[in-house]
């Protein structure tokens, strides 16, 4: 089937199957407000969402909004997020981002990509997550380690740079599905196509995957 389908057709067929396999595709980070989602996404860098979800209840109880986080004692903030790794840099970015939200954006998380990218600690991955899940705006495809690995294995990109992978996927996929494509690939990466031992023998995408048929 791989030879008979164009790259775009194959991408759309993969999307259809992912929707069947994972019909519900909510964000796996726990949050109540756009600011909390922004903070949780910053914390998720080089860290599992499960670990972030263990940390954020105490963090958000102590510092529930942008004003509180902007004025947080940096050492207390570091203590609360220490187990997510790189805690000093993450704490600095969270505090700095919230200070910018309060001082530059009238205490509101920006709803435009270029403005979000002005915030400390925010690159396209974080901005895409916040725009899609907090505001329902699909401006790009979130490329994390799972999305990068599976997109390469599925032959949808030849690039290794997340920005270039994102551009490839944006061409291949319908814009309304950009963010949930990423989440479904994350689910599939965890359940079937893991990094070391992909379970190609049970994978429902195997006949569409060059890596499974090589």
TrEMBL record:
Its cofactor is [4Fe-4S] cluster. InterPro entries: DNA_glycosylase, Endonuclease-III-like_CS2, Endonuclease3_FeS-loop_motif, Endouclease-III_FeS-bd_BS, HhH-GPD_domain, HhH_base_excis_C, Nth. PROSITE patterns: ENDONUCLEASE_III_1, ENDONUCLEASE_III_2. GO terms for molecular function: 4 iron, 4 sulfur cluster binding; class I DNA-(apurinic or apyrimidinic site) endonuclease activity; DNA binding; DNA N-glycosylase activity; metal ion binding. It catalyses: 2'-deoxyribonucleotide-(2'-deoxyribose 5'-phosphate)-2'-deoxyribonucleotide-DNA = a 3'-end 2'-deoxyribonucleotide-(2,3-dehydro-2,3-deoxyribose 5'-phosphate)-DNA + a 5'-end 5'-phospho-2'-deoxyribonucleoside-DNA + H(+). SUPFAM superfamilies: DNA-glycosylase. Its EC number is 4.2.99.18. Pfam families: HhH-GPD (PF00730). Binds 1 [4Fe-4S] cluster. Keywords: 4Fe-4S, DNA damage, DNA repair, DNA-binding, Endonuclease, Glycosidase, Hydrolase, Iron, Iron-sulfur, Lyase, Metal-binding, Nuclease. It comes from the Bacteria. Gene3D superfamilies: Helix-hairpin-Helix base-excision DNA repair enzymes (C-terminal), Hypothetical protein, domain 2. Residues 43-191 form the HhH-GPD domain. It is an enzyme of class 4 (lyase). One of its GO terms (biological process) is base-excision repair, AP site formation. [4Fe-4S] cluster binds at residues 193, 200, 203, 209. Belongs to the Nth/MutY family. DNA repair enzyme that has both DNA N-glycosylase activity and AP-lyase activity. The DNA N-glycosylase activity releases various damaged pyrimidines from DNA by cleaving the N-glycosidic bond, leaving an AP (apurinic/apyrimidinic) site. The AP-lyase activity cleaves the phosphodiester bond 3' to the AP site by a beta-elimination, leaving a 3'-terminal unsaturated sugar and a product with a terminal 5'-phosphate. PANTHER family: A/G-SPECIFIC ADENINE GLYCOSYLASE/ENDONUCLEASE III, ENDONUCLEASE III. This is Endonuclease III. It comes from Phormidium nigroviride PCC 7112.
């Amino acid at each position: 089937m791989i030879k008979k389908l164009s790259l775009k057709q194959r991408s759309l067929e993969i999307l259809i199957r992912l929707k069947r396999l994972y019909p519900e595709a909510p964000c796996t980070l726990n949050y109540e407000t756009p600011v909390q989602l922004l903070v949780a996404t910053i914390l998720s860098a080089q860290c599992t969402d499960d670990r972030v979800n263990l940390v954020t209840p105490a963090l958000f109880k102590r510092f529930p909004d942008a004003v509180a986080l902007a004025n947080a004692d940096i050492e207390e903030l570091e203590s609360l997020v220490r187990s997510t790794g790189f805690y000093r840099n993450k704490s600095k970015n969270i505090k700095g981002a919230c200070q910018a939200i309060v001082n530059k954006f009238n205490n509101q998380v920006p709803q435009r990509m270029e403005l979000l990218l002005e915030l400390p600690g925010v690159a396209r991955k974080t901005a895409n997550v916040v725009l899609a899940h907090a505001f329902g705006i699909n401006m790009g495809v979130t490329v994390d380690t799972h999305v990068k690995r599976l997109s390469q294995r599925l032959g949808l990109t030849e690039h290794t740079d997340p920005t270039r992978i994102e551009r490839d996927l944006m061409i291949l996929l319908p814009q309304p599905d950009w963010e949930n494509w990423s989440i479904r690939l994350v689910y599939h990466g965890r359940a079937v196509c893991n990094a070391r031992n992909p379970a190609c023998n049970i994978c429902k995408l195997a006949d569409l995957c060059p890596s499974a048929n090589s």
